[in-house]
Write a structure and sequence with these properties.
Structural class: alpha/beta
Shape: elongated
Radius of gyration: 26 Å
Number of strands: 8
Bound molecules: uridine-5'-diphosphate, magnesium ion
Length: 323
């Protein structure tokens, strides 16, 4: 069977990591929505080095439905990179990344496309509420969004995930961004274009468990902040300036007092506090420098973002296995 790949209108990208159980329901719901649209589509599934039967099951699906294409990465690279692999291989005029665990309701695709037809280049799904999440998660998420919106140079919309529609123009723009730290939310925002959103309720995960924990979320937040803001680097010069001024004032005061009152017993406590405080500030500064430096190091290595082990269903690829 041969058809012109450029005619694919909608590409759905599904990053999958240990999602074998949920695939049946996912495809069932996706097909119901997509077949109603009267548009040509492809579903690009990126297997992110799953350790269960996900890949096997995806290939099986690909054999049955030609619209399902599979990219198998050589190991687990993380969702953002799996998504990048999908974006780089998708052919559609509009691309929609969606989670495999059905937390992004496929039924919303219709509304996303509706807005796209109205001329928007990016239509993101915005969570109406965060109910069902723990208080800690809600508070930390809140704090993160507040912080990043204050210090980042691009406005990063809050309560959005990667579930969105991207016009071909935007996908091509994102493909030109070579950075290794892929904070997708930020990249999507950075490119600009005409953006809008639709509201939705995000249900809980149906099967399996989330791959996030607080340590990962913390690192994710660090990635977001360091790739979209220089404020943490710059703040130290101001703090340093402020502390020097303070020290200078206090020093002048000591000199004058010594001249007037003579030498008294030096204060051990105040000395200790000052030393510890300055030491702490210096260590934090070093740490922040390290965060940025480490990321620069990662970038300069120029390693490929991901390695593909095999692709199924991509006709332009000589090595692609035609089943
Ligand atoms: N995922 C992935 N690689 C990973 C972790 C997750 O491709 O290393 C996929 C996962 O299969 C799912 C999506 O990313 O389709 C979202 O993952 P998860 O549900 O764990 O995140 P959450 O919904 O809790 O943010
Ligand atoms: Mg999920």
């Amino acid at each position: 069977m041969s058809f012109n790949l450029n005619q694919v209108e909608i590409s759905i990208i599904v990053p999958c990591y240990n999602e074998a159980e949920g695939l049946d329901l996912l495809f069932q719901r996706l097909f119901t929505v997509l077949n109603n649209l009267n548009l040509s589509y492809e579903i690009v599934c990126v297997d992110d080095g799953s350790r269960d039967r996900t890949l096997e099951r995806l290939i099986d699906y690909h054999r049955r439905y030609r619209s399902i294409k599979v990219i198998s990465l050589s190991r687990n690279f993380g969702k953002d990179i799996a998504l990048t692999a999908g974006l780089e291989n998708a052919q559609g005029q509009a691309v929609i990344p969606i989670d495999a665990d059905l937390q992004d309701p496929p039924e919303l695709i219709e509304q996303l496309i509706e807005k796209w037809r109205q001329g928007y280049d990016v239509v993101y799904g915005k969570r109406r509420s965060r109910q069902g999440e723990s208080l800690v998660k809600k508070t930390t998420a809140n704090a993160f969004y507040r912080l990043i919106s204050r210090i980042s140079s691009v406005p990063i919309p809050r309560d959005t995930g990667d579930f969105r529609l991207l016009d071909r123009r935007v996908v091509d723009a994102i493909k030109t961004m070579p950075e290794r730290t892929r904070f997708m939310k930020g990249l999507f925002a950075w490119v600009g274009f005409k953006q809008t959103y639709v509201l939705y309720d995000r249900p809980n995960r149906l099967q399996g468990t989330t791959k996030w924990n607080y340590w990962k979320l913390w690192n994710f937040a660090l990635d977001g902040i360091t790739s979209f803001s220089l404020v943490p680097l710059k703040v130290w010069s101001y703090l340093g300036l402020f502390l020097s001024l303070l020290a200078f004032t206090y020093g002048s005061f000591l000199i004058i007092r010594t001249i007037i009152l003579g030498i008294d017993v030096p204060g051990y406590a105040s000395l200790m506090v000052t030393i510890l405080f300055i030491g702490g500030v210096q260590l934090i500064t070093l740490g922040i420098l390290g965060e940025y430096l480490g990321r620069i190091y990662e970038e300069t290595k120029q390693r490929p973002l991901y390695l593909i082990r095999e692709r199924y269903g991509f006709h332009d690829d000589l090595h692609s296995r035609e089943l």
